[in-house]
Amino acid sequence: MLPSQQVSTISREIRHSDFKPLILSILAKEYETNNIGLAKAKKWIAKVFGVFDDEIDGLLHAHDDLGEVVYYLDSSAEGDATITINTINTILNLNCSKIESSEFNSFEYVLTNMSALERKWLIRYWLSTPRNGIGSRLVAKIMAKHYNKKLGTVKKHLNYNSIFVTASHYDSNTEPPTVLTHGGFVAPMLAKEIPMNKWPANRIVDYKYDGNRYQIHLQDKNVIIFNRKGKIVTQQFPDVVDWVSKYDAKNAILDGEIYPITENGAPAPHKQMGTRVHSKNIQEAMERVKVKWVIFDCLKLNDETILDFSYRIRLEKMKNLPNQAHRMEGDNVMAFYNRAINDGFEGIIVKDADAGYEAGKRSPFWAKYKPPRIDLDVVILSAKYGEGKRSNVFGTYEVGVRAINGFVSVGSVGTGFSDADLINLTNTLRRNVENYDNNIYHFTPIVVLQITADLVSRDSKGNLGLRFPRCVRIRDDKFVADINTLQDVERLE
User: Is residue 151 included in any domain, yes or no?
Assistant: First the structure.
């Protein structure tokens, strides 16, 4: 389904729901997950609906989504308006203790008094499985259409508030606040690839770290960690929470990077971040993969909102905070770049010292510079199972870039993946199969990869291809809308 069709369909689907903010938040995967196990969840749902466990398994095999299963079991349910958001939030925090518990009784009450549609989305979020290829950008368009507001207005409000808070204000016909608040995710400012001759003259240069971008909120020792998409991932980084909670600050909203390190503190391969991001055994993951947190910007500090101040002033305000990024000021940029590469980092970000923080924008005031190579963000279009030890997982992936009318293939990639990568990709992609033909599975385009290659070429039929492509990493932090375009690739020929 095209994005425009998704916007219209979802806008219609939520029209009569009493829980629009919740549903929109779920769509955008805005909230912290609780790592609920599927097996226990199935038992609870079977008990609520009075069916056998085997029946749930059969329906799950057919629908591949427990939310859809619950919807199927009673699609005519109209719901009861007595259910409140607070009640739902209580359910979302349940951790599947014994069925003979007050928690189960609460769960049963809520499910039997919700509409079928609301129930579907509650279960999806409870299990952290709204696998729909929808991100915060598309949700913003849905909100604009549904609430009859300009997209720019919605984006502005989402720069200062969560989707849930913004939608709640729209539902009550009140204006969302445009001040930074604790727990109100701010869309990050992004860098562009800009020629050297257009770099800012008055500049401050930061290292470009090969980790994941995070925004950390601190309020009276309470810490919330958001990933680049605005999803809360605090539970994955208790070590970072401990560091930040000790900062000598009443409150702060910090922009920075968490990257993996070796025992001696040097940068480790980015792939190790997957262990911290996806592991259910947090303690074991902390022991296996050490990380470092670096701050490269600050949006709010000690009740003062500073994102509109110049970068130079923001740095001055935050100078006493620990975990600062490597940075320099002056004209000797290439020497600093060489130092970054020699230290094991990706490159540099050249920043305009006089510019404010442009939330949610890929700004010309931040210029990224990395070693020259063909480096693309692509989406997986199809795959086929491998051979030998890869016979139980997808081994080769056809990838594509954005074009005017969808996506264009740029060839296949089968190297650069760890065994864990292949398992995770296979599990994710199997839930998003659109069709199957001649041993090839075609998917809804939702999984983004960063790949590298020697060059771009065309075959005798004019089809684009990549020489020696290799997967660099799975980009969980990027949306499909962020991938490269056909025009980008054609410029590399």
Answer: no
